[in-house]
Design brief:
single chain, Aspartate Aminotransferase, domain 2, binds pyridoxal-5'-phosphate, seven-stranded mixed beta sheet, alpha/beta
Length: 429
Amino acid sequence: MTDLYQRGAAALPGGVCSSTRFNEAWGKPVYASRAKGARFWDHTGREFLDMSMSHGATLLGHAPECLRDVFQQTWEAGVLCSLDTEHHIRLAERICEIIPCGERVRFTGSGSEATLHALRLCRAASGRDKIIRFTGHFHGYHELVFIGGHPPADQLDASPPFRESAGIPAAMAELIIPVEYNDPEALEQTVTKHRDDAGVILIEPVDFNCGCILPEPGFLELARRLADESGMILFFDEIQSFAKKSPGGAQFDFGVMPDICTIGKSLGAGLPLSAIVGRAELMDRYKPVGDVAHSGTFNAPLPSILGGLAFVETISQPQFWSTIESLGARLFAGLEEITAASPVPVRMQHHGSRFGIIFGTRDPVTNYRQSLVHDREQMLQFCRETTERGVYFHDYGGAACHHGYSLAHDEADIDRVLNVMADSLRAMG
Ligand SMILES: Cc1ncc(COP(=O)(O)O)c(C=O)c1O
């Protein structure tokens, strides 16, 4: 144990503030000292080219210039806590212009908070308590959804579904109905079976959380049709897919409009901000118009809202998307060459500025069951090899998850990432 880890472990469980910050590949947490642009420095001063970018939250880069004004403006406005401002209204207006299903917005801090409050709304509006969700998708760590998402292979068909943490009551699992993604028959049968007790179809339209699985053509359309026919609410969890390929998120990218969605991660330009966005009729069920409670002392703090305005203005510029696209074209063409030449079987799938790495196969992965071929040990080794060479791939406990670049990366960074990835894979062969 390093000194800092020893101190950390004595003060914080596992030495971390978020359980997944413990880096299994390193056998210890990564402690940072500072970050700028596409780089961060650990507490020993070691520099890393960052391919996590705060899981997608710092899409504008670490410490983007626009945040300087945000902090200054916040200070001048008196920091303001627990009060809304014209800025809040302006950001909600801008989000409604950008997100296809957007007519009303409620801000939250984390993505987990957003899905929790959105699901309460869905239950109130549908009058049905059960949730149809997909294996492999992730919607946060709370009791309503940390169930049936990533079961181990021997729990795939468990009924009630697998609870992903100790402490989640068994009764909660009775309310969750997991379905395999991209399986139209399974979805159709499930909706038919549960048309009287399930009120929502919850989808992570691009399943970034198990290696970046895209919806098969027609699958989201089917979910839309089935929701309409059964009176269920179609809920896209776009916490991650928002602003990855276009400002409008996956609902724009794939042309299917949900009734409600959640957006987050990069929304606050690196400051904590997420939002529930949806049709007016649905969203106006929130108090004080309707009967669904959603309140909090720290809801929508001013710095996050100003960060949100800065972010939305940045992604409204065509240059933002031309940069993201040209970096992506370079990176993804390179990844194809690297995976073809890799001595160990590996598959990389991408959408917008993020991509997944799945070890153990070279074939397309289209659902969770297929993703179980992923070799966790190889992923851990890959994280060790790349970080040793100065490029940081975040370790999700060896899982196939997602990685990505930001506006602050340049072509030289992308070339370096490609070289390091190729060298690392060769070293693993
Ligand atoms: C699709 C999706 N939903 C919800 C969440 C939870 O968001 P947060 O980590 O901000 O609580 C995440 C986070 O990775 C996510 O990717």
